[in-house]
Known about the structure:
Blueprint: E1 2-6, H1 10-22, E2 26-30, H2 33-42, E3 47-51, H3 59-68, E4 75-79, H4 84-92, E5 97-100, H5 105-120, E6 127-130, E7 133-136, E8 141-144, E9 147-149, H6 153-164, H7 172-179, H8 190-202, E10 211-214, E11 218-221
Amino acid sequence: xxxxxxxxxxxxxxxLRQGLSEAGFTVDLARNGLDGHHLAMTEEFDLLILDVMxxxxxxxxxxxxxxxxxxxxxxxxxxxxxxxDDRVKGLELGADDYLVKPFAFSELLARVRTLLRRGTAPTxxxxxxxxxxxxxxxxxxxxxxGKHIQLTAKEFAxxxxxxxxxxxxxxxxxxxxxVWDMNFDSDTNVIDVAIxxxxxxxxxxxxxxxxxxxxxxxYMLDNPDAG
Length: 227
Ligand code: CA
Protein backbone atom coordinates (compact mmCIF):
# COMPACT_ATOMS: atom_id res chain seq x y z
CA UNK A 1 0.00 0.00 0.00
CA UNK A 2 1.43 3.34 -1.06
CA UNK A 3 0.63 6.55 0.76
CA UNK A 4 1.37 10.18 0.03
CA UNK A 5 1.79 12.66 2.85
CA UNK A 6 1.60 16.35 1.98
CA UNK A 7 2.85 18.27 5.00
CA UNK A 8 5.02 21.38 5.16
CA UNK A 9 5.92 21.12 8.84
CA UNK A 10 9.04 19.01 8.58
CA UNK A 11 8.83 17.57 12.09
CA UNK A 12 5.32 16.27 11.56
CA UNK A 13 6.07 15.08 8.04
CA UNK A 14 9.13 13.13 9.13
CA UNK A 15 7.32 11.68 12.11
CA LEU A 16 4.39 10.51 10.00
CA ARG A 17 6.62 9.10 7.29
CA GLN A 18 8.67 7.14 9.80
CA GLY A 19 5.67 5.84 11.72
CA LEU A 20 3.75 4.78 8.63
CA SER A 21 6.83 3.16 7.12
CA GLU A 22 7.32 1.19 10.30
CA ALA A 23 3.67 0.17 10.08
CA GLY A 24 4.46 -1.42 6.72
CA PHE A 25 3.36 1.22 4.23
CA THR A 26 5.31 2.65 1.34
CA VAL A 27 5.37 6.37 1.99
CA ASP A 28 6.10 9.41 -0.16
CA LEU A 29 6.40 12.77 1.54
CA ALA A 30 5.83 16.08 -0.22
CA ARG A 31 6.91 19.11 1.80
CA ASN A 32 4.83 21.68 -0.05
CA GLY A 33 1.55 21.88 -1.90
CA LEU A 34 2.95 22.14 -5.41
CA ASP A 35 5.03 18.98 -5.10
CA GLY A 36 2.16 17.21 -3.37
CA HIS A 37 -0.29 18.22 -6.07
CA HIS A 38 2.09 17.13 -8.81
CA LEU A 39 2.73 13.72 -7.21
CA ALA A 40 -0.94 13.12 -6.50
CA MET A 41 -1.87 13.94 -10.10
CA THR A 42 0.85 11.90 -11.75
CA GLU A 43 1.34 8.84 -9.55
CA GLU A 44 -0.95 6.22 -8.12
CA PHE A 45 -1.49 6.18 -4.36
CA ASP A 46 -3.82 4.15 -2.20
CA LEU A 47 -4.34 7.05 0.20
CA LEU A 48 -3.43 10.72 0.63
CA ILE A 49 -2.78 12.40 3.94
CA LEU A 50 -3.24 16.05 3.20
CA ASP A 51 -2.41 18.97 5.44
CA VAL A 52 -4.83 21.86 4.93
CA MET A 53 -2.52 24.75 5.78
CA UNK A 54 0.25 24.78 3.19
CA UNK A 55 2.18 27.89 2.13
CA UNK A 56 1.69 27.58 -1.63
CA UNK A 57 -1.39 25.61 -2.75
CA UNK A 58 -3.49 24.74 0.26
CA UNK A 59 -4.98 21.34 0.94
CA UNK A 60 -8.46 22.42 -0.19
CA UNK A 61 -7.22 23.37 -3.64
CA UNK A 62 -5.30 20.12 -4.01
CA UNK A 63 -8.34 18.10 -3.00
CA UNK A 64 -10.64 20.07 -5.31
CA UNK A 65 -8.29 19.68 -8.23
CA UNK A 66 -7.96 15.92 -7.65
CA UNK A 67 -11.68 15.36 -7.48
CA UNK A 68 -12.31 17.56 -10.53
CA UNK A 69 -9.91 15.47 -12.53
CA UNK A 70 -11.75 12.31 -11.50
CA UNK A 71 -9.26 10.98 -8.97
CA UNK A 72 -11.09 9.07 -6.26
CA UNK A 73 -8.12 8.23 -4.07
CA UNK A 74 -9.19 8.32 -0.40
CA UNK A 75 -8.10 11.54 1.32
CA UNK A 76 -7.56 12.01 5.03
CA UNK A 77 -7.02 15.66 5.76
CA UNK A 78 -5.21 17.19 8.70
CA UNK A 79 -6.49 20.42 10.09
CA UNK A 80 -5.08 22.52 12.89
CA UNK A 81 -8.35 24.32 13.34
CA UNK A 82 -11.09 22.47 15.05
CA UNK A 83 -13.89 24.40 13.42
CA UNK A 84 -17.04 22.80 12.14
CA ASP A 85 -16.76 24.94 8.98
CA ASP A 86 -13.40 23.40 8.13
CA ARG A 87 -14.61 19.89 8.58
CA VAL A 88 -17.75 20.51 6.55
CA LYS A 89 -15.76 22.20 3.81
CA GLY A 90 -13.33 19.30 3.61
CA LEU A 91 -16.02 16.69 3.48
CA GLU A 92 -17.96 18.68 0.87
CA LEU A 93 -14.87 18.91 -1.30
CA GLY A 94 -14.63 15.14 -1.19
CA ALA A 95 -12.32 14.30 1.68
CA ASP A 96 -13.06 10.96 3.29
CA ASP A 97 -12.03 11.72 6.84
CA TYR A 98 -10.19 14.34 8.85
CA LEU A 99 -8.02 14.59 11.93
CA VAL A 100 -7.56 17.66 14.08
CA LYS A 101 -4.00 18.43 15.14
CA PRO A 102 -2.55 17.46 17.50
CA PHE A 103 -3.51 13.82 17.21
CA ALA A 104 -2.12 10.55 18.50
CA PHE A 105 -0.27 8.49 15.93
CA SER A 106 -2.34 5.44 16.88
CA GLU A 107 -5.46 7.37 15.92
CA LEU A 108 -4.03 8.35 12.55
CA LEU A 109 -3.02 4.76 11.89
CA ALA A 110 -6.50 3.51 12.77
CA ARG A 111 -8.10 6.03 10.38
CA VAL A 112 -5.66 5.15 7.60
CA ARG A 113 -6.41 1.45 7.95
CA THR A 114 -10.14 2.03 7.99
CA LEU A 115 -10.03 4.20 4.87
CA LEU A 116 -7.91 1.64 3.05
CA ARG A 117 -10.32 -1.13 3.99
CA ARG A 118 -13.32 0.95 3.04
CA GLY A 119 -11.79 1.51 -0.39
CA THR A 120 -12.09 -2.19 -1.17
CA ALA A 121 -15.36 -2.90 0.65
CA PRO A 122 -18.63 -3.21 -1.22
CA THR A 123 -20.62 0.00 -0.85
CA UNK A 124 -24.03 -1.64 -0.67
CA UNK A 125 -23.36 -3.55 2.52
CA UNK A 126 -26.42 -3.98 4.70
CA UNK A 127 -25.05 -6.39 7.24
CA UNK A 128 -21.99 -6.69 9.46
CA UNK A 129 -21.10 -9.96 11.15
CA UNK A 130 -18.49 -11.06 13.68
CA UNK A 131 -18.65 -14.62 14.94
CA UNK A 132 -22.38 -15.19 15.61
CA UNK A 133 -23.05 -11.46 16.11
CA UNK A 134 -25.01 -9.84 13.31
CA UNK A 135 -25.78 -6.15 12.73
CA UNK A 136 -28.55 -5.36 10.28
CA UNK A 137 -27.58 -1.83 9.17
CA UNK A 138 -30.84 -1.06 7.42
CA UNK A 139 -33.19 -2.33 10.12
CA UNK A 140 -30.83 -1.22 12.93
CA UNK A 141 -31.28 -4.64 14.52
CA UNK A 142 -28.73 -6.77 16.29
CA UNK A 143 -28.76 -10.50 16.90
CA UNK A 144 -26.33 -12.80 18.58
CA UNK A 145 -26.61 -16.56 18.09
CA GLY A 146 -29.93 -15.79 16.42
CA LYS A 147 -31.34 -13.99 19.46
CA HIS A 148 -32.56 -10.45 19.03
CA ILE A 149 -30.75 -7.93 21.25
CA GLN A 150 -32.35 -4.59 22.09
CA LEU A 151 -29.87 -1.71 21.85
CA THR A 152 -30.27 2.03 22.21
CA ALA A 153 -29.27 4.19 19.23
CA LYS A 154 -25.98 5.12 20.93
CA GLU A 155 -25.23 1.50 21.76
CA PHE A 156 -25.89 0.53 18.17
CA ALA A 157 -23.57 3.29 16.91
CA UNK A 158 -20.90 2.24 19.38
CA UNK A 159 -21.18 -1.41 18.37
CA UNK A 160 -21.13 -0.54 14.68
CA UNK A 161 -17.93 1.48 15.18
CA UNK A 162 -16.29 -1.37 17.12
CA UNK A 163 -17.30 -3.93 14.49
CA UNK A 164 -16.17 -1.80 11.56
CA UNK A 165 -12.80 -1.30 13.19
CA UNK A 166 -12.49 -4.76 14.66
CA UNK A 167 -9.00 -5.73 15.68
CA UNK A 168 -8.05 -2.11 16.34
CA UNK A 169 -7.72 -0.61 19.79
CA UNK A 170 -9.97 2.46 19.77
CA UNK A 171 -8.96 5.25 22.17
CA UNK A 172 -11.79 6.81 24.14
CA UNK A 173 -11.15 10.12 22.35
CA UNK A 174 -11.82 8.44 19.01
CA UNK A 175 -14.97 6.72 20.26
CA UNK A 176 -16.09 10.08 21.66
CA UNK A 177 -15.57 11.85 18.36
CA UNK A 178 -17.34 9.17 16.34
CA VAL A 179 -20.28 8.25 18.55
CA TRP A 180 -20.79 11.33 20.71
CA ASP A 181 -20.32 14.90 19.57
CA MET A 182 -16.90 16.46 19.18
CA ASN A 183 -17.16 18.48 22.37
CA PHE A 184 -17.73 15.42 24.45
CA ASP A 185 -15.76 15.57 27.67
CA SER A 186 -13.69 12.41 27.54
CA ASP A 187 -12.79 12.72 31.22
CA THR A 188 -16.24 11.53 32.12
CA ASN A 189 -16.91 7.83 32.25
CA VAL A 190 -19.81 7.89 29.79
CA ILE A 191 -17.91 5.71 27.33
CA ASP A 192 -16.94 3.17 29.99
CA VAL A 193 -20.54 2.98 31.15
CA ALA A 194 -21.81 2.55 27.59
CA ILE A 195 -19.26 -0.19 26.93
CA UNK A 196 -20.27 -1.96 30.14
CA UNK A 197 -23.94 -1.90 29.09
CA UNK A 198 -23.08 -3.09 25.60
CA UNK A 199 -21.01 -5.91 27.02
CA UNK A 200 -23.81 -7.00 29.31
CA UNK A 201 -26.06 -7.25 26.27
CA UNK A 202 -23.87 -8.82 23.63
CA UNK A 203 -21.17 -10.68 25.59
CA UNK A 204 -22.46 -11.68 29.01
CA UNK A 205 -24.48 -14.72 27.98
CA UNK A 206 -22.44 -15.66 24.95
CA UNK A 207 -19.08 -17.10 23.96
CA UNK A 208 -16.61 -16.06 22.75
CA UNK A 209 -16.33 -12.62 24.37
CA UNK A 210 -15.96 -10.02 21.63
CA UNK A 211 -15.36 -6.71 23.43
CA UNK A 212 -11.97 -6.36 25.05
CA UNK A 213 -10.40 -3.68 27.23
CA UNK A 214 -6.85 -2.56 26.58
CA UNK A 215 -5.77 -0.94 29.81
CA UNK A 216 -4.82 2.69 29.41
CA UNK A 217 -5.46 2.52 25.66
CA UNK A 218 -9.10 1.92 24.95
CA TYR A 219 -11.45 -0.75 23.68
CA MET A 220 -11.33 -3.27 20.91
CA LEU A 221 -13.75 -5.69 19.34
CA ASP A 222 -12.12 -8.91 18.31
CA ASN A 223 -13.19 -12.47 17.64
CA PRO A 224 -10.62 -14.61 19.48
CA ASP A 225 -11.79 -17.68 17.55
CA ALA A 226 -11.01 -16.18 14.16
CA GLY A 227 -7.64 -16.91 12.57
CA1 CA B 1 0.90 23.04 7.58
